[in-house]
Structures are given as C-alpha cells and as structure tokens.
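HUMAN:
Could you generate one sequence with tokenized structure?
ASSISTANT:
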Amino acid sequence: MLALIHQHPLLIAVGLLFADLACWRLLPAEGKIWRVLLRLGFFLAYSLVIIDAGMSPLQPPPWTEPALNMIGSVLGIAWWLLCARTLTVVLGVLLMPRSGHAGRLLQDVLGAVIFLAALVAAAAYIMQLPVKGLLATSGVVAIVVGLALQSTLSDVFSGIVLNTTKPYRLDDWVSIDGTEGKVIEIDWRATHLRTSQGGTVVIPNSVAAKAKILNLNRTIDIHQVSISLSVPAQVRPRRVLDALNRTLQGVSALLPAPKAKVTVKASDLHTVEYEISGYVSAKSNKTEVRNLIFDLAHRHLQAAGILRGNEAQDVAHSRQRALLDDVKIFRSLSAEEKDLLAEQMQPLAVSAGQVVLELGEVSEQLLVIDTGVVSAAVPDGERFIEAGRMGPGEIMGEQGIIHDTPSQARFTALSSGMLYRLDKPLIQTCLEQRSEVGSALHKLQSFRQQNSAALLVQKPVAIKKGGFLRWLQRS
C-alpha cells in the first residue's frame, strides 16, 4: 500500500478528494460528529500524500513539466480549499452548537472570510501572484460594491449582531416594533415572523436591530393581554378610569405583578380611547380573559351611567329597572312584573373590604350588584380560597332564599359600590307566580356548588382553563 502511494501520489491525492466528496454526500446529516471526523481524517491523509509527493502548500509545484505543474497547482489550490472547508466545519461544531437554523448566519459569514483567506493564500503561495496589487484592486472594488449594496450590507451585519446577541431564537414569539409573531427563519437579509393570523411578515435585519423587541418566550411564564375601548369625549375621564379600574378588580385571572393598569391611549374631539392591559399566567386562556375583560368593562361602564344603551326608547327606565334586565334569572318576567319588582329594590352602599354576606349566614334578601366588585371565597380548612369575582348584574344570597340554608361562601366587597336588596317575601311571591325564576335559581345554586367542590378537590388551585373566569356569570 505504501509502495503504491509512493509510486502514484498524485492519483492517490485525486482519489482522496473524490472520496471525501462522496462520503460527505452519502453520510446522513444526523451523524454530524462522524462527518466532521471523517472530513478531518481525509484532510490529514490528503496533506500527507501531497507532502510525500514533494509538494508544499507554501510553495509552487516543484515540477517543470507543464502537465505535472498544472496538476500540482490544482492539487495545491484544492489543499487550501479543503483546509478552509475543514476549518469551517470544525468551528461549526466546536464553537457554534445549534439546532435548526439558529446561528447559521454567523457561521456562513465566518466561512466566507475563511474561504476568502484561503483563496488569497493559494494565489500567493501556489500561483505566485502579486497579492498586494490584487488586495489593493479588490479593496477599491469592495468600496464600490459596498456603496452599491449599502442597504443589503446593513441587513447582513445587523443579522450578525442579532445572531450574536440573540434577543430571540427560532420558535420564539416576539413583538418587533409592534409586529407580533413566531420566529420561523433568520437569514442573511431578514427575520421571518408567522403571525397569529397565519401570514408571514418579513422584517429586514437592519430594522429589527434598531427596533424595540419584546420576546414573549423570555417572560416568567406570563403573557400580556390588553383591550382598547373608545368612549365619547363628553364623558369625564375620571369616571371612565374608575369604572375600568373596577373592571380590572373583577378579573381574578390577572396577575398582581406586573400590575394591571388603565391608560388614556389617544383622543380627539369626538372620542377618547382607553387601554386596559395586564398579565396572565401561561396556563390561562388569553382569548377567554380578553373576552371577560370586554364583558366586565361593558357592565361597569353601563353601571356608571357612561353607556346609556338605546336612547330612542319610548320609556325611560330607572337604574333599578335597567339592572333587572341584566339579571338572567329574571329574564322570564314581563315588563310590568319587572317594573313592580324594581319599585321594591332597596339600595345598599358597601365599601372596600366590607363583608356583604358572611359564611354560614342565612340571607333574608337577594342581593343584586349594581356597581363595584365582590369576591366569593370558600373555606378550605382554616383558610379561604377565592372561587370567583362578581360584577354588575350578578346576584348572591339565593341559598337562603330557596332553602333557608346558610351561605357556603363568604362574599367580600373588593371596591366600594352599590347593591340593591330584594326581600325574601317578595322573591318567594315571584317564585310562586313564575316557576322559571325558581328553576333559574336552582340551576345557579347547583352550578356554584359544583364549582366550589371542584375547587376544593384540586390543591393547589389547578383550575381548568377558564373554569372559574366565568364563575357566577350565569346569574
């Protein structure tokens, strides 16, 4: 074997080049380490063979015969290219471990620099070309090309910065300058995002490098939810802010930190736009929380007298009468019956922290929330677990009305507000006349008992997504 190598070193060198290309193509991409080791072995073997043939990568071919000189030059240039390729592959494994396409841009740029250096070295050592003049000429050409491709080069180098600093990676959900989506590709020129609507947004790397980037995957298992509402400019902002802050108090899914907030986003002569924003855990359903915020905001704005409803109605209803229209258990009543019931409703002002209905208390009134937020908590040993929060149009005390049994929860006002009382004899008369009201009350009580029992079984609180976001909303 050694004798064959000594007799035909150039043929062996050519064979090694083809064998290297074939093995690189045939080996599976998953065996990255084996591919790199095999390429490194072929490079070392190729180097030994051409050195044994009397060649040096730092010298031109030693043969004067034109054919041998040409073959030697080709093999010498091939050595430099093979060296560059081997070096880039080794660097890709040792210095830039990655999955998918992450880090590909930086590796490609380093590979281009290494190959450029190998070509210059091959021209200087093998072909004996005047490299200094070539570098000077290429420098002028590079300046001209750089000016012509200024925008493209800005994207390329910005891509290098993004891949080095890694503000986001593949499969991250990010918001780049207000555009939110999932990172599906980072190439030489741009970052590709797939939006929640299924479209693809291509953001140039130069824009992404200068923009405000919010990486939603790097939060501590939290996500932001926000909604915007437009209110007529004639309404004093303080009234709207108070109603919307009560809305936030009514959404138990919102995390206490970072704190949810209400801000004035924009305004003109006709409307003022308000934004409600907060954060929920990764386990929460963002869409369901947003829908709940919209619903609660509507109810609190309506309770504050900001939303008037249809102003073209022939009959102007009192607040008590309008409130009864929002209570689901009274939907079967006629307009005349609701009018009579509204006349009997007695106001009850509550302050923040006040216990509206204590655990074990037998209620003698049906309480209807007009404004404010009430928290319902069920006992779990020596402590209480919040089962849900209630807002305008929801009721409590139905257990004492139906069965004369004590309340199984403690109802506490989270904010100041107004409630209305309906005395027990009045409700019992209504139950005798309208069986649908009794059925609705029984259904509501059964629903609350089932959810309270499920809450106590699951410790710590492991509520099904959205399971208690709508707690007590069937009233």
User: Anything to note?
Assistant: The chain is about 45% helix and 20% strand. The chain has a mean pLDDT of 80.
